[in-house]
């Protein structure tokens, strides 16, 4: 099979397995170049197959020598379908992480389900032991309510007034105007149900009930705060309400973690980066492009791996933690610096659509988007045939 990018509404409907391998390989090389750090022995990563969850897994496996258990929802290749990038990231993470001589286990399926939680508990009891760190890095468009059998969808909408924005159409390479409509009360509730903190809390409760948390165990999830240009659509919108809920659950869980384990439940506000999830958010494409441009010029741009490595090495397990008044870890402080925000906002407000597409930051953003789906790596010949049937024999471990 010859695999070329297939994109619909900024969503890649396919991926290139060898490119996914290259993406994982590159992140591992980045991690290996950093100083090692004392971290968790056993880490559970919910949503560890792509984006921030994958970068966290690599940082911990190669930086701290952690055993990692990853829960993700991914599709295997089938007939003419390549499978999802996260599927291949899991497969190749396993292959490349063999050299760590640690345990790395993948569970594929619905993290929201009780069955998945029970499977993970059973495995941990038999093969791994208690966890020192639980990362909740899920980004999902929907959640099955197992009681009603109804699929609840999350919405990316404003609250109150509609908002105008612009987005880069990745396929047509055009900047398109768009209107983000305001959500109904139900849509806000549904988004909180899918992307809020209740499922994270359920995971911690079940781990606690099964005595699977070690003394001083920590749990962390990733929020986004952002600046004025993303305010209406993100923080002030439906997703922002879900993030408030996530942060509220962290405060609640922190009480249990502190009292019972002398541990912590943490929120880290992470930098805006190109991931499968972030391109769905209107105007994020333009914001990230301008932000990358400014941060590269100022010498403070970080790759996704660098960002998570710094989070764990310096702020979670090191003594360089930066927190805000709500006790959220602000590893995004470089993005949020006043001069970076000012210049990014100015650029977004004044740049023409044509110039935006020519920006180095936009090129970097687009390259990242292609690469997380396995495309645009110089050392891969995309005209070569990929024996997908043969590759399909590789199974998650
Ligand atoms: P992503 O799409 O790259 O990864 C999402 C992960 O969730 C994948 O591993 C996927 O398999 C998993 N997943 C989704 N539904 C699942 C299900 N039902 N069961 C099991 N696994 C499931 O997303 P990302 O951008 O890395 O986002 C991760 C977290 O980081 C989110 O909470 C997001 O809001 C937050 N965050 C992202 C950014 C950003 O710019 N991308 C910035 C700050 C915070």
Blueprint of the fold:
Elements: E1 7-8, E2 11-12, H1 17-33, E3 42-46, H2 51-63, E4 67-72, H3 85-97, E5 104-108, H4 114-128, E6 131-136, E7 142-145, E8 150-153, E9 163-169, E10 174-180, H5 185-195, H6 198-209, E11 213-223, H7 228-231, H8 238-261, E12 264-269, H9 284-297, H10 304-316, H11 333-336, H12 338-350, H13 353-358, H14 360-372, H15 388-391
Parallel strand pairs: 3-4, 3-6, 4-5, 6-11, 11-12
Antiparallel strand pairs: 1-2, 7-8, 9-10
Helix pairs in contact: 1-2, 1-3, 2-10, 5-8, 6-8, 9-12, 9-14
The protein binds nicotinamide-adenine-dinucleotide.
Q: Which series of helices and strands comes N to C?
A: EEHEHEHEHEEEEEHHEHHEHHHHHHH
> How many domains, in number, for the residues?
1
Q: Within the largest sheet, what's the order of strands? A: 5-4-3-6-11-12
Bound molecules: nicotinamide-adenine-dinucleotide
CATH superfamily: NAD(P)-binding Rossmann-like Domain
What is the total tally of β strands? Answer: 12
CATH topology: Rossmann fold
Biggest sheet character: 6 strands, parallel
CATH class: Alpha Beta
Helix/sheet category: alpha/beta
Per CATH, the architecture is 3-Layer(aba) Sandwich
Q: Tell me the helix content.
A: 40-55%
The residue-averaged pLDDT reads: 96
Distance linking N and C termini: 25 Å
Shape annotation: globular
Radius of gyration: 20 Å
Q: Are there runs of 5+ residues with pLDDT below 50, and where?
A: none
Provide a short characterization of the protein structure.
The protein is an alpha/beta fold and 397 residues long.
């Amino acid at each position: 099979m010859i695999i070329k990018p297939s994109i619909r509404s900024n969503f890649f409907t396919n991926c290139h397995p060898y490119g996914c391998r290259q993406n994982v390989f590159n992140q591992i090389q980045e991690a290996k170049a950093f100083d090692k750090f004392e971290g968790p022995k056993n880490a559970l990563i919910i949503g560890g197959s792509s984006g921030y969850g994958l970068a966290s897994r690599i940082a911990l496996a190669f930086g701290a020598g952690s055993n990692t258990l990853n829960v993700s929802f991914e599709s295997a290749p089938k007939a003419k379908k390549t499978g999802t990038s996260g599927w291949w990231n899991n497969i190749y993470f396993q292959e490349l992480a063999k050299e760590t001589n640690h345990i790395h286990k993948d569970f594929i399926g619905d993290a929201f389900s009780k069955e998945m939680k029970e499977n993970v508990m059973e495995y941990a009891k038999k093969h791994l032991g208690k966890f020192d760190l639980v990362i909740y890095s899920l980004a999902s468009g929907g959640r099955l309510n197992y009681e009603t059998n109804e699929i609840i969808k999350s919405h990316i909408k404003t609250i109150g007034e509609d908002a105008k924005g612009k987005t880069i159409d990745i396929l047509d390479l055009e900047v398109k105007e768009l209107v983000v409509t305001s959500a109904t009360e139900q849509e806000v509730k549904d988004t909180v149900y899918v992307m809020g903190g209740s499922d994270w809390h359920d995971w911690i409760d079940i781990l606690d009930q099964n005595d699977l948390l070690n003394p001083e165990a920590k749990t962390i999830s990733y929020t986004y705060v952002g600046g004025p240009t993303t305010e209406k659509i993100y923080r002030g919108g439906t997703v922002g309400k879900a993030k408030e809920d996530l942060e509220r659950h962290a405060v609640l869980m922190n009480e249990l973690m502190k009292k019972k384990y002398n541990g912590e439940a943490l929120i880290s506000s992470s930098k805006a980066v190109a991931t499968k999830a972030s391109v769905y958010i209107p105007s994020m494409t333009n914001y990230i492009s301008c932000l990358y441009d400014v941060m590269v010029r100022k010498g403070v741009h970080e790759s996704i791996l660098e960002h998570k490595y710094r989070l764990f090495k310096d702020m979670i397990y090191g003594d360089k933690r930066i927190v805000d008044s709500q006790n959220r870890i602000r590893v995004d402080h470089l993005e949020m610096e006043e001069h970076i925000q000012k210049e990014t906002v100015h650029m977004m407000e004044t740049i023409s659509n044509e110039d935006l597409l020519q920006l180095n930051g936009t090129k970097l953003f687009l390259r990242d988007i292609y690469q997380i789906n396995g495309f645009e790596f110089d050392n891969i010949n995309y005209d070569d045939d990929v024996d997908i049937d043969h590759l399909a024999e590789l199974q998650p471990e």
